[in-house]
Amino acid sequence: MSTQFQAFKNKVEHCLCSPGDGVFTVNTAKERKAALRNKLYGQTENVDPLWRDSLNELPNSPHKAVMLGISSDCGGGILRGANWGPLFVRSALIDQQPQCHSFDLGDVRVIPHLLHDKYLNNATISNCQKALYGDENNDYYVSPLSITEDVCDSFYATFKDKGIFGIGGDHSISYPLTKAYLKAKREQGKRTAIIHFDAHTDLLVERLGIDLCFGSWCTHILEFLPAPHHLIQFGIRSSGKPKAHWESTFGVKQHWAAEIIERGAKAVAAETIAQLKADNVDEVYVSFDIDALDAEFASATGTPEDNGLTPQHALDILSAIADEFPITGADMMEIAPFTDSSLVGQSSSETTLREGAKISAFLISAMNK
User: Fold this and answer.
1) What count of other Cβ atoms lies within 10 Å of the Cβ of residue 118?
2) Which chain positions lie within coiled-coil regions (predicted)?
3) Domain spans of the chain, in order of start
4) Which of 368, 354, 365 is nearest to 93 (CA)?
5) Regarding the domain with residue range 3-368, which homologous superfamily does it belong to in the CATH classification?
6) How far is Cα 57 from Cα 43, in angstroms, rounded to an integer?
7) Comparing C-alpha atoms, which of 152, 174, 183, 115 is closest to residue 330?
């Protein structure tokens, strides 16, 4: 066991916990946690030692996709509940996509009131360090975005041939996931692009005075891309400003939902592939907000939107891109299983989870290639 891996493992054992345990609860959904533990470990109690032992298998794991859950919805702000995503998506993958395999790193240990350490004073950080780690005199971060970036930085420094598949959580979580990924790839000399599926642009500079949130994370990762237009967005339809505003202001590339529906997913995918090749992109990261799908398929989310993509639209675009470029990082965000805002006759949370698991399985399989 290398010294570098041992240092990484030590950080993981402090900052993460076993899969599904990242969401802070007392009694809520206790039986669902027990069910996931039984699926993963064959028992419902005393799984922490089993999870810790499993970490030793990571260096020799045949899977390039490494799953990380971040059960935080503090960076959201419409309808909460995305913190349950990691628990429910894992269960859906096991039950509905048994052919899909990845190494499960576990969940970030989340204090549900926190977002990023930069918003905290020293006294609060010390109190939270004591709560999370039993020691107020340590160097570990305490907020989910800060912990995620730190763990991912260490991961990419230790495993250059593997990638993180993140499960959220609200979309603010994609900020540390993509930032760590882009920094690591830049250091490796790789040219990257972010493929972003969403009903919303997430290109605010700040929301209500907070600069890192579900509506602004894209703005703050642009500086880590080779160029702004290496952020390519699909499925946009809920915006107070037209497409031309976002593309001219930020330099990104967008394909709105109406365009994809009218032109066809394959035509849009072909245009995207041509762009990626012209930009000499080596690898891509896919960030998928479930509300990119029409509310008929994804109602259990904080901001469901009509007139969106079908799952087949998304899979057609992803399949075409995956045939031409390695997908080496990805995430699935904003599935809120207890927040089904559908009307009678529309889809249920089970539908949202099914479609989310289907797309997640595709991304994990693509990463494993």
Assistant:
1) 10
2) none
3) 3-368
4) 354
5) Ureohydrolase domain (3.40.800.10)
6) 20
7) 174
Kindly state the helix (H) or strand (E) to which residue 83 belongs, with its residue range: none
pLDDT tens, 257-305? 999 999 999 999 999 999 999 999 999 999 999 999 999 999 999 999 9
This prediction's pTM: 0.96
Residues of the chain with pLDDT under 50: 344-345
What residue has token string 């008929």? 296
The alpha carbons of the chain give a radius of gyration, in whole angstroms, of: 19
In what order do the strands lie in the sheet containing 283-289? 16-17, 103-108, 65-70, 163-168, 327-333, 283-289, 192-197, 231-236, 253-256
Residues in Cβ contact with 356 at an 8 Å cutoff, skipping those fewer than 6 apart: 89, 92, 290, 298, 332, 335
Read out DSSP for 297-340? T--SSSS--SS-B-HHHHHHHHHHHHHHS-EEEEEEE---TT--
For 287, residues 6+ apart whose C-beta sits below 8 A from its C-beta are 171, 174, 177, 178, 194, 195, 196, 197, 198, 330, 331, 333
Say if CB 329 and CB 182 are below 8 A apart.
no
Interior CA angle at 88 toward 261 and 318, to 5°? 30
In whole angstroms, give the CA distance from residue 79 to residue 336.
9
- Beta-ladder partners of 327: 284
Q: What is d(CA 152, CA 162) in angstroms, rounded to the nearest whole number?
A: 11
Tokens of residue 177, six digits: 């996931």
Q: How far apart are CA 269 and CA 235, in angstroms?
A: 12
Closest CA to 73 of 299, 286, 334: 334
Q: Quick one: tokens of 320?
A: 């075409």
Q: Please, are residues 157 and 3 in contact by the beta-carbon 8 Å criterion?
A: no
